[in-house]
TrEMBL record:
It holds the Pfam family Glyco_hydro_2_C. The lineage of its organism: Bacteria, Pseudomonadati, Bacteroidota, Flavobacteriia, Flavobacteriales. Keywords: Calcium, Glycosidase, Hydrolase, Signal. Residues 198-296 form the Glycoside hydrolase family 2 immunoglobulin-like beta-sandwich domain. It is an enzyme of class 3 (hydrolase). Residues 57-195 form the Glycosyl hydrolases family 2 sugar binding domain. Residues 1-24 form the signal peptide. Its cofactor is Ca(2+). Its EC number is 3.2.1.23. Belongs to the glycosyl hydrolase 2 family. This is beta-galactosidase.
Amino acid sequence: MINSFTLKSLTALLILALSCVVCFGQQTKKIYLSGKDYKHPVAWEFLCSDGNNSKQWTTINVPSNWELEGFGTYTYGRWYKELQQDQPSKEEGFYRHRFKVPELFENQQVRIVFGGVMTDAQVKINGELAGQVHQGGFYQFSYDISDLLVNDTENLLEVHVKKHSDNPSVNNAERKADWWLFGGIYRPVWLEIKPQSHIDHLALDAQMDGTINLHLETKNIPKNASVVADIFPVTAQKKEFSTQRSNLDDSNETLTFKWDDIDLWTPESPNLYLLRLQLKLGDKVLHQVEERFGFRTLEFIVKDGIYLNGTKIIFKGINRHSLWPESGRSTDKEISIMDVNLIKDMNMNAVRMHYPPDDHFLDVCDSLGLFVLDELAGWHGHYDLKTGAKLIKEMVDRDVNHPSVTIWDQGNEGGWIDELDSVFHQRDPQKRLVIHPWADYKGWDTHHYPTYLTGVHRFLNGENVFFPTEFMHGTYDNGHGAGLKDFWKRYSESPLFAGGFLWAFADGAVLRSDWSGPQKYDSKGSLAADGILGPHREKEGSFYTVKELWSPIEFDPLRITQKFTGDIFISNHYLFSTLNKTKMEYSVVQLPNTMLYQDENLLTIAEGSINLPSILPGEKRKLTLDLPDNFFKGDWLKIKATDPYGREINTWTWPIHTPSYYSQKLIKTTDNPTTKSRISEDEHTVELKAANIKVQIGKQDGLIKNVSNHLGTIPFNTGPIPVGFKATVDKVSISIQGNTAVCHVDYNGGIDHIKWTMYPDGRLKMHMVALKNAGRSSGFDGAFFQPDIDVFGITFSFPEQGVEGMKWLGSGPYRVWKNRIKGTNFGFWVKRYNNTITGESFENLIYPEFKGYHANLVAASLEANKNSFKVFSESEKVFLRLFTPEEPKNGFKGSKGYPDFPEGDISFLYEIPAMHSFKPVSQHGPNSQPTNIRIKSGDDGISMILWLDFRN
């Protein structure tokens, strides 16, 4: 037994084994006929029957989808009426490739393996059929071509591919679906060479107690043969394990081995091992195979839950398509690594597929740690029994040994046949659960897009384990994080809740090789723009919302005041891990006083580590930070947590002071006691003047009519207009108070009064009091109640043209909705102007989006050349609205991008609308619902204090 390998030396041995058949002839040899991925293709001869670049022989990269290579016709599934397509494209592709096989492989078994072909594939070797036409575009298949090959001369491989299957059930399952339809040999093609006596297939069940049950299918096994098993740690601690031997008598054999002191696989500690099996006759090695695996035990208990290694699990997952914009469904391992890391970065532990993904994606899920729901394709339609059984066998045989594969899905949203469920267990010794996604089926309720109060005898009131395999639909900027907090909290109240899967991972936009002009990427409008990420994995705002909400570390609500002594409460929401191995650091950040007026760097005035005790999963503890002496000289506290693998869990921030503190600190003052502000009025306007600043306010409506400084007019005007309530001017009075000028506007209706104060250095202060006794002269009698307020505040006009960006202090950097504020952090942010339409601006996709609502405004500098100005808020929890995002232009029915925005361009609000998520807001939780306002006699009303600085 070899027991001292490092992983590096083991890898080197494997490479040597694959390259030196003479020395290691007993190992399976793999020879690629295509490239290994779309980045490293091999050119084959090709002819496309119809569409672009058709009807002539040329070459094509293999692997690839031919549409992305400039051939054929693009089709989106189900050929919707909105797409003005009655039928999908049905072109066919003809491939030719010549290759040699050395004499060395004579008298060995040679199979040709296709990782995936869309959709029907007829394969010929030297003019002879290799076997039956394969139907089904997402599955690995192979043929034994040993008797069709000619050694040491060129062999001709011909593949005839039909994009539209001759089998109607395949089209029902795969092509009448809500995804892109492609054609071609899009996954690698290779030869697999084995000795005549060999292990043909291996399915293993590695349990948490160290037992491995091996289900072998073998060929041409001589009498008295045996199997020798060794395991080598890949990611776990390096340990020595005994070699074990078992006699082999039958062609299909179940063998059992057991090792002690093994490390278990979980998504939080994905320990992997390499199993080496040697088929031996005496001391002679006839064949050797190696398989990577993890020890873990899955249990599926009806009316209870899903368990891994004895621990009940909660899926925090997302749905993912195998797709890259420039290559369609032809991807590579780098994309898989990137995608799994992004999923893990959102503190997710699970992913669901709509068809078997690339095998390298499952490899990465194994090594980085994700639960996988592996799915037989089918979107409302399903395969026939014979085809379905064949494809299940291919799917399970390829994926059965991945420890990440947790559940088998048969089809989706009706795309199943009950009779096929048993086929999974025929090929899977682990007998993993088979579900029907969206159905309440045999004790497993996977209902799609539940409302907050879904269910008579379902979910919180039901008796079945529930985990929606699709929820929080994310078209454009909708869904995902918007409303997730309420849904998750409510469903988590049930002991039968097993988690859920957001829809979906990335916008399904692809490069249109047949388009010219500025627009190059196509998501079929709103049909495929469902991602929490852009097509090239650009992060939308919900990415950070989910990251915070699903963080395994949670802080109790905290407000820092002068009485803060460092006490914080922290909860552990990991399934398996204690927190003592988590790295946690704090820093105290200080903002220079002149930060909004000139470019300066933030200052870290204190930092240190926080030692976390062994807080168990599900446990809450109080920690006390050792506050530095200068803590209250800082402006915000930042805490960052990192897991044992170096991955950021989350970063949290808390302001140390109130907005009034920051206003006094940050607004530039140049008062001269000998100067005074001035005020004048005529029949129509009041004019406030100081230090080259002039502000005119209308006496009839109370609106700013004109603002100017030494550079000219600043087009900030036509406000404050009430938003969410009404008010009319009652009277206007002016006065000089000390060296300030004051315009006092009294209102009837929702505003009680606004006091405008001009300071000698040109600063303008607005102090509004609203809903005091429900407004002056409003018929108020004892109490005032206003239901269903979804937006409340004031708004102004300002032109978008010429705006270059914004510097601001608040919670950012992403825009927010009422039900998607989590994921922002208090800090100083710089945003460049952009007109990004989330889920549609694929050519100029800039995040964070500039337009929309921004949380917890403290101070902002809107940069617009000579029209620039600054605003400071002394009031807490003010939302800054910056302009109105453009609605998506290409959406279909029901794909509205945003809730309605109030009039005006720049608004200061205490209430903003919630974002819908596939379901209307009325079917969301309480934090998505409009506000009710009740004012009683004697209330002070709602105050808002803003400073406006037009000095440029």
